[in-house]
Amino acid sequence: MSRDLLAARPGTVLWGWLPGAVDRPVMSVGTGDTVLVDTVSHQGLTGDQGRDPVAYFGAFGVEPRDVPPDLRALAESGPAHEPAVDGPHVVTGPIEVRGARPGDVLAVRIEDLAPRTPYGVAAPRGGRGPERLCVLDPVASTGAVSDGPPLEFRPSLCVMGVATSDGLRRHSTRAGSFGGNLDLPELTVGATLHLPVQVPGALFHLGGPRYGTRRGVPGLVWHGPLRATVRLDVIPQAEVRHWSGAGRRPYVTTSDHLMPLGLDTDVDRALTQCQSQALELLLGRYGVPRAAARARLDATDFRIHRSGHGVHARLPLPWCGPVRASAA
Description:
Elements: E1 5-6, E2 13-15, E3 17-18, E4 27-30, E5 33-38, H1 53-58, H2 69-77, E6 90-98, E7 105-115, E8 119-124, E9 132-137, E10 142-144, E11 151-152, E12 156-161, E13 170-171, E14 175-176, E15 179-181, E16 192-196, E17 204-214, E18 220-223, E19 226-235, H3 237-240, E20 251-253, E21 257-263, H4 267-285, H5 290-298, E22 302-304, E23 310-313, E24 315-316, H6 317-320
Parallel strand pairs: 1-5, 4-6
Antiparallel strand pairs: 2-6, 3-13, 5-19, 6-17, 7-16, 7-19, 8-9, 8-18, 9-10, 10-11, 12-15, 12-17, 14-15, 16-20, 17-18, 20-21, 21-23, 21-24, 22-23
């Protein structure tokens, strides 16, 4: 079983865009392999921050030696970035998963998310407000800010996806059948994201690392670089066909919930997608009788993504029961 490390450096990342089918893989692994992937937050890289992470973090009192070398390398020789055109996320990949074919599903299990620095940057969602250094307390699993209550350290990956068959790169703020900017705090350690494979090798990629988030208006995001440990498993199309149409769109499983997703900027369409996928999964993957499945959906809350890209639901796993043998 592979446990190779994919570093974030010029040549292994895209800035503001999600890899497409035309992008050459920067790593190749087999199904069932576990890989370590370094992710980078964009703080200190953008032009309005001087594209100088040493100076940017130095203004908060961070010593140059405590600024990740890969962040400095990206600032010095990494890809060009135009904020008016490009997205904010630094995306590592793509990773080829050998044997993955269109029609399969790539199951991405997050096994670990380790902070790469003892600090991050707390910023209001949408960039409307001051950015503040947030120092990690590993004992309390919180982050201290100077003018507010501590933030819970609950790391997650905002961006995970696969390449699309049209060969195009997608803007890093987009989400769809390919995954992308899902912006779900539930994509943390122990969660599994299921992505429909659209090109040979899948071309998996990830980014948008976060140390934590705080709900509210406008909300607060604690950005920070993470080393992600993920296991990549290919579920063959022969198994996926038992799920009816549920293999066409991403969904998430956690230790206690099934999370169907509807990914569309039109909320009504996203809600319809999410409800349809929830029903398909309950019927096909878990074998719940139709009447019972509809009753469970009637008792389920559907929530709009904070990114505005869709709708998700949280169904307790006891409602679902065991996975059917043909869908395991």
